[in-house]
Design goal:
alpha+beta, three-stranded mixed sheet, 3 domains
């Protein structure tokens, strides 16, 4: 059963579990052996991906529309909803969420993003909100099985992609009304404009750059929050992406994630030149990068498995093409790279869940490696299929289009290398 916003007891219990997490002394050791519960959930999601998602993938890719019927199917079985996501987030090993994402995106990345795109907004609320805000807003991100909703995380802008400090959207506090007035334009927002709940990153003090940013909830039906142009994309076409316009958009003071007292303390430290504990947008991205890496691993695995079976069955010059070393060795490398990427994802996911610092930018490593592997593996799969791989009659063409964004969004490959190089050197690499 999906918890709604009015069912505060269930929501409160789940939020408490999420906030507390495992005590440091009780954190599970990192292990590659999955528990039976993890295996059961993996197989359950795989079955949904195989039987529901894959058969519909080509249709929704061509339609370039949000697959609401499939989102509803996911909601009805508990895969999409507050309780399910809370269970995945709360896994003390940190592995359940990446496992679920890998299996779902193995089915199809566009539909997978339509189902999992909401979790980016949820991650922002979870990472920066108070327990009360989590209990109120996270359930509203999902709606109910009979009336599913989606949520959007709005950070990027037309002139602020990798450079988060260039955000121009502003939030001004109206003390008399205890309201924030938000103005600006967001770009490339997954579920932007169609979301029930938008989480918006805005500047409250431009002189402080990225340290002057804060995250705000835009409640359903708020005036001044409207969808702009819908983006027609190369891949992930079943996932809705659009600009979001914010025109004198007024939200209650309680919609500032973390609360005003916490914000004022952070701004005061920033003005004194002290450390502020992270940027609003970057905190969300750092938490989500291993999960995004898991999505890329799922795409790569799907392309590898399809190419492997094709190579066993495709006969040229009187024998299956897999008997040629050029093909067999390529497939061996594909498998090796996928497994290496998964290991980086799992390590970063475990570290993030158990409070182990990313001293060498392990979160960025996992996303960078997995994204590049997805692009490379899907391209090799197309090559193995030859001319067939270049047509829409075979799924690897769609997989290759879907994979490319993993080199770009939530930090380009170049930005990830910048983050890693700074972490390992201790120097401000430019």
């Amino acid at each position: 059963m999906t918890v709604t916003a009015t069912e505060n007891n269930g929501a409160g219990d789940a939020v408490e579990q999420l906030v507390e997490g495992p005590p440091a002394e009780d954190a599970p050791p990192f292990s590659l052996e999955l528990s039976q519960d993890q295996k059961d959930i993996r197989d359950w999601v795989h079955g949904f991906a195989e039987n529901v998602v894959r058969p519909a993938a080509a249709e929704w890719d061509e339609r370039e529309e949000t697959p609401w019927p499939i989102i509803q199917e996911a909601a009805k079985i508990g895969l999409y909803g507050f309780e399910g996501i809370a269970q995945f987030f709360a896994d003390p090993s940190g592995l359940q969420l990446p496992i679920v994402n890998e299996e779902l995106f193995w089915g199809d990345a566009g539909i997978g993003m339509s189902i999992m795109g909401t979790t980016l907004a949820v991650a922002a609320i979870f990472g920066q909100g108070t327990p009360e805000q989590m209990g109120e807003w996270i359930p509203q991100c999902f709606g109910t099985p009979d009336d599913p909703k989606v949520a959007a995380f709005c950070s990027s802008e037309p002139n602020a992609g990798s450079d988060v400090s260039a955000i121009r959207t502003t939030a001004k506090y109206d003390e008399a009304k205890d309201e924030w007035v938000i103005n600006g334009q967001k770009a490339w927002a997954t579920n932007g404009g169609i979301a029930n709940v938008h989480v918006v990153i805005a500047s409250v003090d431009r002189e402080l750059g990225a340290r002057g940013h804060a995250a705000f909830i835009i409640p359903p039906g708020t005036k001044g929050c409207e969808q702009g142009a819908k983006v027609k994309k190369h891949g992930l076409r079943a996932s809705h992406t659009a600009d979001v316009h914010l025109d004198d958009c007024r939200v209650p003071g309680s919609c500032l994630l973390g609360g005003k007292e916490k914000l004022d303390e952070r701004l005061a430290r920033a003005r004194e030149g002290k450390r502020t504990g992270g940027q609003a947008a970057m905190q969300t991205f750092e938490a989500s990068r291993p999960v995004v890496g898991a999505q890329a691993v799922g795409i790569a695995r799907a392309a590898y498995e399809y190419a492997l079976e094709y190579a066993k069955e495709r006969v040229q010059f009187g024998r299956p093409i897999i008997e040629n070393q050029a093909i067999a060795f390529t497939l061996a490398n594909m498998k090796m790279e996928i497994d290496a990427a998964r290991l980086l994802v799992w390590r970063a996911s475990w570290m993030g869940r158990n409070g182990v610092p990313f001293e060498n930018a392990e979160g960025s490593m996992s996303k960078l490696k997995a994204g590049e592997v997805a692009v490379w593996v899907t391209e090799r799969a197309m090559q193995i299929l030859g001319g067939n791989g270049y047509t829409r009659e075979f799924p690897v063409e769609r997989m290759h289009r879907d994979a490319k964004i993993y080199d770009i969004f939530e930090g380009t490959a170049e930005i990830q290398r910048l983050v890693i190089s700074r972490a390992i050197s201790g120097m401000h690499i430019r």
